[in-house]
Write a structure and sequence with these properties.
- This protein is an alpha+beta fold.
- It contains nine helices and ten strands.
- Strand 7 and strand 8 (204-207) form a beta hairpin.
- Helix 5 (73-85) runs antiparallel to helix 6.
- The longest helix is centred in the middle third of the chain and has 23 residues, at 94-116.
- Bound molecules: S-adenosylmethionine.
- S-adenosylmethionine (SAM) binds at residues 15-20, 45, 47-49, 52-53, 90-93, 96, 140-142.
Length: 230
């Protein structure tokens, strides 16, 4: 069946909404094949639509989880959550965001239920749903504001010891500032300044989180908002 690439001519005119076909998505992801298959590589799709790219990335990551950890239900569960937590998207249209979130959840849940069988549990499903809701946001990727005018804030999820996960929230506009991303990036311009932290991955001082949460079991991330923030 032919893939539907537009929803309406008005949406094409208003928002440039033309969806990418599966073949093109996979050809593009093959350009970064290793990263697209690595379980913890972080991807942000700033105009994610209904999720053609992020869904394909999640599927690739889950294939890796199955290959590496398919023998153990607990490992499969933990690493499949890691896969989900590293995929981010923004779209300006609410219905696209809803569709994208549901699509990612269904991909994860079908695989989780198939591989973990009787060990699959609803608390983990709620955690996965919550992480997807936090990672796929409705907003304007150009102004980096939500539709209600507040800044787009993404959560970074890091597995710490055992099954504990650390959530840190960052403002997208701060992470995307030119002086961090441009060729003239000055590595020690912000060294030691309040609100900045050294990031080993990019080897630079970057804005710190706007909020940090206590370590929690990854199956309980959905309740962290209710507990005290650090
Ligand atoms: C060309 S479509 C691509 C959708 C998807 N990435 C794909 O390849 O199938 C562009 C998408 O960007 C969204 N969009 C347009 N302007 C945007 C903006 N300023 N911020 C975020 N999303 C935007 C549209 O709603 C649409 O879903």
């Amino acid at each position: 069946m032919a893939e539907k690439q537009i929803k309406s001519r008005k949406r094409v005119a208003d928002h440039g909404e033309v969806f990418t076909g599966e073949r093109e998505v996979n050809a593009m992801l093959d350009l970064v094949k290793d990263e697209s298959e690595r379980i913890d590589s972080r991807f942000l799709e700033p105009a994610c639509g209904t999720g053609n790219f992020v869904a394909a990335i999640l599927q690739r990551k889950l294939n890796t989880v199955h290959t590496k950890y398919g023998q153990s239900h607990s490992d499969y569960e933990r690493y499949s959550i890691l896969a989900i937590s590293s995929v981010y998207g923004i779209d300006i249209l609410e219905d696209n965001v809803e569709e994208c979130r549901k699509r990612l959840y269904d991909i994860w849940n079908i695989a989780y239920t198939r591989y973990c069988r009787a060990d699959a549990d609803d608390e983990c499903r709620k955690a996965a749903e919550y992480i997807i809701e936090r990672n796929i946001l409705c907003g304007d990727a150009l102004t980096m504001l939500r539709n209600d005018g507040t800044p787009i804030i993404f959560s970074q999820w890091d597995f710490a010891v055992g099954n504990k996960i650390k959530r840190r929230d960052y403002r997208l506009d701060e992470l995307m500032r030119d002086d961090f991303t441009g060729p003239e990036m000055t590595l020690d311009l912000y060294a030691g300044q309040d609100g900045y932290e050294y990031d080993e991955d990019v080897q630079a001082w970057v804005p710190g989180p706007v909020k940090e949460y206590p370590l929690v079991d990854y199956r309980e991330v959905q309740y962290a908002e209710l507990s005290r923030c650090l």
